[in-house]
Each structure stands twice: as structure tokens, then as C-alpha cells.
Amino acid sequence: MNIILALLVFGIVVAIHELGHFTVAKLNGITVHEFAIGMGPAIFQKEHNGTKYSLRLVPMGGYVSMEGEDDESDDPNAFCKKTPLQRMAVVFAGPFMNFVLTIVVFIGLFSVSGVPVNKVGGVVENSPASDINLKIDDEIVFINEVKITSWGEITKTLGKTSGEVTIGVKRNGELSELKVMPDEKSGRRTIGIYPKYEKHFVNAIPYAFNQTASMTAQMLDFVSKLFTGKVDFNYVSGPVGIVREMGNSTSSGFSTFFSYIAFISLNLGVMNLLPIPALDGFRILTAFCEFVTKKKLNKKMEYVVNFAGMIFLIGLMIIVTYKDVLNIFKKG
Q1: Does domain 115-198 have CATH number 3.50.20.10?
Q2: Which of 18, 67, 69, 302 is flagged as catalytic?
Q3: Domain residue spans in the chain?
Q4: Is 184 designated active site?
């Protein structure tokens, strides 16, 4: 049951991506032959205003079939007849919707679970914080005269200090200054406190954006290390590995499960923006080159490059999937 739920979620994430392409294509008057959710044989089809809407058997993937997307067309409303900016907008809309979905999921998640604020939620025994008698609900307002307004600023500011630090603590409306010597653990300076989490929809919004930006930066850093050979290939998972982990996450609570949804959606958005043939990023790049040079690229050559990129990605997917299946048997 968990695996089925994970497959459905994966299908929804991809459907949101394709919905972005479809919506902007329609807004730009592009002829859309089909909008499909899932892959394989169709289990439901309905045609409306010249577009066929279909739900397919395998809930992993989906697509938007546009006139003139991969070849030349005489249709004035074909994708290839539109301006470079219009084509860039259609292509970018897919990854953009994945970013939107990630932010929306995070807003809902943080609204329910709360966001860490610059207040003490717990104190580690025999830590610098316990030595200076920090208590739960104490508010950290400054560190060495640096104003603190969020939990992230506490860890960031402590990391830039050296030696003993002065902490401004507000307790019951009264401000006091405390001297403390942080511990050094794994290259990080800590004083032994946990954050307090507060549930507030307004605070969840900027935190969701910050979390999305932070995860995007981490993904791009991982990709750069992957292509330079600085990352162990064993840490890379394909659909099988991701679906398995999502299935396992359903037993870990809603927070972990929805975090996986946000991660998968963001991963799909970020990866698709990479300028690799067959991905959205490459289509954006070619349209941008046309916009700058005012010269239309050879459609056959673009098709060949995209086809080669697709073969490469399929080959990579087969290798990763093979590794995921082996890992399942090993763990089993």
C-alpha cells in the first residue's frame, strides 16, 4: 500500500510539472494535441477544444504533446512558430510549477509543525547553556552586539565568533547579558540549546522560501560534484530508490512524508533546468540563443542532439535503477 501511495505522489508531482507546460502553452495559443497524466495504455480519455485529455495506466510520468515541438510544422499555432520568449515561457513553466509546489507543501508543513524561532526550546545537560542557566522560552536577542531575529542567525553568528561570546537574553520582559564559551563540535560552535518551534502561518511563508532556496543550492552543489567525480555514485538514487524511500516515509509520520514530496518536486524542477539535451534547460538555452542571435536553429540538428541526450539519460536511468534494485535485494 505504501508503494502504491508513493507512486501516486510521484505521478502527481510530474502532473503538476506538465500542467505548467500545458497551461502556458494554452495561454500562448499553441496547438496542444494531448495532455496525459501517467504513461502506458490510456484508461480514460476525453477530448475538449481539440485537445485530448488522458489518464494512463502507469502513474509515473506524463506529457504534453504540442504541435511542432520536435519538428517543423505549417500550423501557425505550432510551438515552433512562436517567438523565442514564448517558447522559453512554455518550457520554464514546468520546472516553475515544481518550485511552486515545493513552497506550498513547505508552507503547509511548517504551518502545522511550526518553525524554529530565536527562543530556547531545550537545553543540553552539562553544556555551556546549562552552565549559564539558560531556560526554556529564553529569547536570544543578540550575540556580540549582532542582532538576532531567527534561529538560523544564532548558528550563523556563533560560527563567526571566536573565544568567549556575550549573549543578550530576554526573560520575562527583562534583558540580561551573559558570557559563555561555546563548545567546538565537528568544526561548529555550539552552546547546547535546541530551538523552540512556533506555529504561525505568516512565519511559515518566508521560512518555506528560505528552505526551498537552501535545498536548491544543496542540489546544485551536489550536481556539480557529481559531474566532477567528487560524489560517490552509490549516493545517487533513481525512481525505484526514491519510491521505496517514500513508501518507507509513510510510516515515519506526515512530516517526513510531505518533506519527501517537497524534495521530489524540487529535485524535478532543478534537474529539468540543467542545460542537458532532452531536458527543459536545454530547450530554454536553444530558445535564448535564437533570441540573442535572431537566427533560427536547425530543427533537425536540435532533434538529433535532444535524441542523443534522451538516450544518455535513459542509459543513466537504467544503471541507477539496476543499482537500486540490487540494494533492495541486499537489504532484503
Answers
A1: no
A2: 18
A3: 2-113+206-331, 115-198
A4: no
